[in-house]
Structure prediction request, 935 residues.
Amino acid sequence: MCHYDKTTHTHPDFQHIQKKIGRRDFLTKTSLGIGALALGSLFKADKLLAETSSGGIAGLPGLPHLVPKAKRVVYLFQSGGPSQFETFDYKPELAKMFGKDLPESVRGGQRLTGMSANQSSLPIAPSIFKFQQYGQSRAWVSELMPYTAEVVDELCFVKSMHTPQINHDPAITFFQTGHQLPGRPSIGSWVSYGLGSDNNNLPSFIVLNSKNAGGQPLYARLWGNGFLPTEHQGVQFRSGTDPVLFLNNPENYDGADRGKMLEYLKELNTLQYEAFGDPEINARIAQYEMAYRMQSSVPELTDMSNEPDYIFDMYGSDSRDSGTYAANCLMARRLLEKDVKFVQLYHRGWDQHAYLPGAIRTQCKNTDQATAALIKDLKQRGLLEDTLVIWGGEFGRTVYSQGKLTPNDYGRDHHPRCFTMWMAGAGVKPGFTYGETDDFSYNITKNPVSVHDFHATLLYMMGVDHEKLTFKHQGRRFRLTDVEGHIVKDLIA
Amino acid sequence: MENLDLFIGRFHPLLVHLPIGFLMLAFLMWAYQVWAKNQDYRQAIVFALLLGALSATAACVAGFLLASSGEYDTEMVAQHQWAGILTTTMAGCGYAAFAMRNRMAVHSRLAGGMLCAMILGLGMTGHLGGNLTHGSDYLTAYAPFGKKESLPPAPESIQETQLFPHVIRPILEQKCVSCHRQGKLKGGLSLESPESILRGGESGPVVSSPGKENELIRRIHLKESDEEVMPPKGKKQLTKEEMALLEAWISSGGDFSKPMTAYADSVSGLATGYLGLVPSGETEDLKVVLAPVRPGVLEELRGKGVLIRELLDGSYSYDVHIPAAALRVERLEDLLLSLEPIRQNVLWLDLSGLGMRDTDLAGLPAMPNLLKLRLERNHLTDRGLSFSGKFPGLQVLNLYGNEVTDHCLEELGKLGKLRRVYVWQTRITQTQVGEIRLIGEG
Prediction:
């Protein structure tokens, strides 16, 4: 396609750039080396990429800070704020208080959202679902999650999560990036930046969003790289035959000389990088090459023909329908098997302000079996040994009913003061429950865990000291946990 | 204005540099005049000597006031003081000799001799003064000659560490001793040696009262803007870690020789971080100290497509994965053999999905420190698993998707540290063998 001489760069494009370099060189030298100084700060980023080897992409020098317990993470994000009352935080005392106004002593003057602040009363709504204890750990699980109930002895519940954010967008942004305002890198981006990749043919941070749930929107910035180099952003796999957009060759192009074209493009870009020193050029080079390798690695991943029927049955019938939560759980296992470091799932629709019992029944039905199947499947393959599974939303829900309370129906508003998450697998105590809430699951009574603490602990599991993984941006060093976060050692096996 | 004397006294370090410059200049001009013969700098020499003598007098006065604060070792101060007074006198006499040479026919040799004596005095005074401020070994500490005080060898593990000599003393030396030492004795306190620490200073003993009433603890915790903060404003402050260590040492009685193991875990944790040792909580998997791998070996293996990740930065312990893609470049047999140079350093090894047979696995070098071995999705049979001698430390073994049966369990039972074996999709039917948990039905 392109006839050019590698050694003398006779192609006009190269000559053009080289001319520009000459001029630029002159300017750099005459401007008291300011340009050179700026370039100096970029050499580090350059070196980072230079360490790329054929077998994987190295992380930052100096890492891991600790012996990792988890090599991979799969984060099953339940977006919308799953109710703790109907899932894991069993509050039998509430049955006696059906319809009574929430005592002011419990609420403690907390500001409510505009959606329930003007209600004339805040009637207590006990869960209409039955709870039972399961496993050797005797963990309480509601009847909505029969499959999760089977794996409770693998789970490490944290019933005392809390967040300062009461609305979806800032709360999810906080959970995913460590800050409530947009613009910071996502957890997966930090992990990719710090630890690199164990599979050169797939991105180290992959995002899957269920198609079978609606509700509050999610946006690409939640898995964005923020100020980190662009190649660390999450790559979203979509449902259907074309999981990664723009990956396939255009129609009527066989792609035979794609490799050669990219090599030529890389040389051009490298010259450009040498001239301008913009690390984003390196990110672009890396992304082109990753996309090229993904042209073969992604079809291999999405070809489900080698999955036996009993595996599909295990994840539930939805798992045959690409893009559902169940299919994404199965895909997550396939990605983890290929050593993708951070797999981020999202399942929306947990935001039940009204008609909660019916809606949460559907939510659980769509997720419970596949979630449990993922745990079992990872375990039988030995992957739970070094994979951390995380389940949780951005906040919990209120003990009082939003809107009208009837014996069979009620709604619940957002509640940031306490909610339940669980983790499983590498590094966490199996069959363990941490933290306690009061009889109203309104306030934490024991061992609160903040979102920063959760992030610090998550990084610890991966061998990263959250205080040491930093990136200097706009004059100061940033961390996922910013200036906070304590490792919750009690959760660690 | 009760502290006026001290206010003036503290100008001494500033003032002393004036006579040094003036007198040195006078001496150099005279020396050049003698050497060049035909130059006449006499007027300039007289002027420089006058300025030198005056500023030296001012420095003497300020120095005397500073010394009266009593913060310095009296003997060393006395030597410095007399040397300074002598130098000032010489400067005055030198001035007189040069200024009057014409009128009183002072012998030019006498005048020159006086200048030489003055410059010697100047050097001596300066040196003694420097010793007072920086310590008598400041000048020669890094000299390529002379005998050095041997430092205790750096501990390699936290178990070998003693809190005082390895942790507390270095902190004191870096941040405190430049002022609190024999000779300078700020606040009457020297933190140079166990004896002087026991003696304490004007505010009492260092280690007697634990907690916040302790003067040292109180003052190191003040804000940097505070008048009383230690180290003083502008000096390099203690880090939080160092503060915590000092506090822990004092509140545990300020012992000078107890081993680290005698202290609470929180203290040894802090010390571990301070000394940059491998945290003891993390060493459970990495108890063995591993020898460095020969340079180039890792690069060569990576070049063959072997994935190698260091488990802990700087520990020479590795998580090694041979991906199936590497087989396109090299034969499995050769790849396994090529791990020989790092066999001591492999802690986790992933050989899953390589189509491996018993004979292939037999070629894998012995790995005494191996903890986790992934052999899933291969064609191994019971015969292939006779490796108990090769991987004595194995804790986790993944066998799923192999053709192994219950017969291999006896051999696996010999692996005393083995805890979990993944046996899904094998012909193994049991769930527990001794302490080994067999996970996943066969």
In short: Confidence is low (pLDDT under 50) at residues 280-285 of chain B.
